[in-house]
Amino acid sequence: MIILKSPHEIEEMKKSGRIVSEVLTEMKEMIRPGIKTIELDRRAEDLTRKRGAKPAFKGYRGYPASLCTSLNSEVVHGIPSNRVAEEGDILSIDFGVLYKGYYADAAITVAVGCVSQTAQRLLEVTEGSLYQAIDRAMVGGRLGDISAAVQTFCETQGFSIVRDYVGHGIGKSLHEDPQIPNFGLSGRGIALKAGMVLAIEPMVNEGTYDVKVLSDGWTVVTADGKLSAHFEHTVAITDGAPIILTQTM
């Protein structure tokens, strides 16, 4: 069941989104060669709790941390640890909060120092596909319009779309209906309505779209060991333009 949010609820979700945005902005500033992913996680949790919010992921289905930190060939759900980000890596940070009863969720992928031309293109295309998708989050459209926008933009640039993991609705629960694939056909799927709030999150691979889960039961990696990038925003559909609730600064 898709739960439509009232204008008041969307205003409340903006508060959650602002916290996510502020924390991700600091994470981006902290990322440098030599940083341990556990350091990012500790700082993110500290910033979140100081704002009166709770990390959305910590304890969710047993997940042990506040951030997901995914390096290079890791697609999503990488667990923070004493691993060090090195020059030339790319690091995806996925983060969500619960604040006054409402969730918000977003992700960025950051270059660690100087990266390869391929890595830089992957980041630019993945982030660009997110905004292509957001532009289609309009009343009168279909869910497939969002999915097709991501797929078309990325595949024309020579990259592939992860099939096994998708975006989702969000509100009083972290994951709500509908699921939002990053591939599909324009004009298909459910009608988009004012009050829908969607976590749109392209996951884009350098090589094959096939993925596998590591033995920790969480970390998803590309099957061929090539790079992956991930960008996400929580977006409200309104009677006018879509509102990005987690817009980073």
Could you explain the architecture of this structure?
- Helix content is 28%, strand content 25%.
- It has four helices and 15 strands.
- It has helices at 7-30, 37-50, 117-135, 143-155, and strands spanning 54-55, 67-71, 74-76, 90-99, 102-111, 160-161, 167-169, 176-180, 197-200, 203-205, 211-213, 220-222, 228-230, 233-236, 243-244.
- The strands form four sheets. The chain has a five-stranded antiparallel sheet.
- The chain is globular.
- The relative contact order is 0.19.
Structure, briefly:
This protein has 249 residues and is an alpha+beta fold. It contains four helices and 15 strands. It is 28% helix and 25% strand.
One letter per element, helices H and strands E, the order comes to HHEEEEEHHEEEEEEEEEE
How far apart, in Å, are the first and last alpha carbons?
33 Å
The helix fraction, in percent, is 25-40%
- Tell me the number of helical segments per DSSP (H or I, 4 or more residues long): 4
Structural class: alpha+beta
Radius of gyration: 17 Å
pLDDT averaged over residues: 97
How would you write the strand order of the largest sheet? 8-7-9-14-15
Point out poorly predicted stretches: none
Global morphology: globular
Specify the biggest β-sheet.
5 strands, antiparallel
Tell me the number of strands: 15
Amount of beta strand:
15-25%
Present the secondary structure layout.
Blueprint: H1 7-30, H2 37-50, E1 54-55, E2 67-71, E3 74-76, E4 90-99, E5 102-111, H3 117-135, H4 143-155, E6 160-161, E7 167-169, E8 176-180, E9 197-200, E10 203-205, E11 211-213, E12 220-222, E13 228-230, E14 233-236, E15 243-244
Antiparallel strand pairs: 1-4, 2-4, 3-12, 4-5, 6-10, 7-8, 7-9, 9-14, 10-13, 11-12, 14-15
Helix pairs in contact: 1-2, 3-4
